[in-house]
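Technical annex, item 7. During the second reporting period the consortium partners agreed on a shared format for inverse folding records so that results from different sites could be compared directly. Each record opens with the tokenized structure and is followed by the designed sequence. A conforming record, contributed by the partner at site C, is shown below for reference.
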């Protein structure tokens, strides 16, 4: 009898491997790139003096455009990328047209007469002064009248004059000067706004300045400023430090823009720099670097010394 071959058993076919659904990749948002391009373009035009710094005081009127940009970005999230880029370019062009319109075709309101205020010393031995600038130009100098603690000249170009609060306590004067109402109430038309503040030469001062959106010229070389706090804001600030203070403290926050600091001859400084996105430049020939600080060679024995702390912010801070 012929032996039959054993049947060959074949395994059943494997079930098909399920294919994972392809993830739908979302196109990157255009909001932040467009905002960075717009802000960077205006800052470039500021630093090259094509546009004045006071333009920032009018740009706040366009803040609803950011909401429009975010809405368009969400609405077109699944559209072809070239469509979104094209609309983004169109948005930037419309924004530039709006800037031109704000600068050249919208008339400012009628101006006001300058405001002049003065505060006598009246036995004051020390003073704390706070300046909150909105948009415009800020100048700080020694007072012309020796009998005054402070003198203010303000040209506000159509808006209410600045508000000033002053009080005395134990021979210490506390003076605060700020724009009337909201700080940015001035922002629309303040291209001619200017504050000129004179301070007493012989009164020890604690001075705090919020520069806002302004061009600031601060000559403190003849003042007894023992403590200074400066917030650079948006714009350019030129600062000359006190020249005859035995021991002073200076704090500088760079903000967006440029802060240029001059150390008078005969003044020794110790500088501490904290991080920021901006650039900090220090004259290492005058102030050699020692670890994380910069210090004058004669700092320990100098009769006039300043301890300076700099936070770079986004803009530029130079010290020489």
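Designed sequence (site C submission):
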């Amino acid at each position: 009898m012929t032996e039959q071959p054993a049947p060959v058993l074949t395994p059943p076919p494997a079930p098909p491997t399920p294919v994972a659904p392809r993830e739908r990749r979302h196109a990157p948002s255009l909001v932040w790139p467009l905002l960075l391009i717009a802000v960077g373009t205006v800052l470039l035009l500021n630093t090259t003096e094509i546009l004045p710094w006071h333009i920032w005081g009018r740009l706040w009127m366009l803040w609803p455009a950011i909401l429009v940009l975010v809405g368009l970005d969400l609405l077109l999230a699944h559209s072809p990328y070239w469509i979104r880029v094209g609309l983004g370019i169109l948005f930037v062009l419309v924004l530039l047209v709006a800037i031109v319109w704000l600068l050249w075709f919208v008339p400012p309101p009628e101006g006001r007469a300058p405001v002049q205020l003065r505060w006598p010393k009246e036995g004051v031995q020390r003073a704390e002064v706070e300046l909150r600038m909105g948009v415009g130009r800020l100048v700080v100098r020694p007072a012309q009248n020796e009998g005054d603690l402070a003198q203010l000249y303000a040209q506000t170009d159509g808006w209410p004059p600045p508000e000033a609060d002053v009080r005395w306590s134990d021979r210490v004067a506390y003076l605060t000067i700020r724009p009337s109402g909201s700080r940015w109430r001035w922002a629309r038309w303040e291209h001619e706004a200017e504050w000129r503040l004179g301070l007493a030469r012989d009164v020890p001062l604690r001075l705090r300045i919020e520069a806002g959106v302004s061009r600031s010229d601060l000559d403190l070389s003849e003042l007894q400023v023992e403590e200074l706090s400066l917030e650079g804001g948006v714009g350019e600030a030129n600062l000359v430090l006190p020249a005859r203070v035995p021991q002073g403290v200076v704090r500088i926050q760079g903000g967006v823009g440029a802060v240029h600091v001059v150390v008078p001859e005969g003044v020794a400084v110790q500088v501490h720099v904290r991080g920021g996105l901006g650039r900090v430049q220090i004259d290492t020939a005058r102030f050699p670097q020692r670890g994380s600080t910069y210090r004058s060679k004669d700092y320990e024995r100098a009769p006039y010394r300043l301890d300076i702390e700099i936070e770079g912010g986004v803009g530029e801070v130079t010290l020489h």
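Confidence is low (pLDDT under 50) at residues 182-191. The chain has two domains: 31-104, 115-319. All partners now use this format for quarterly exchanges.
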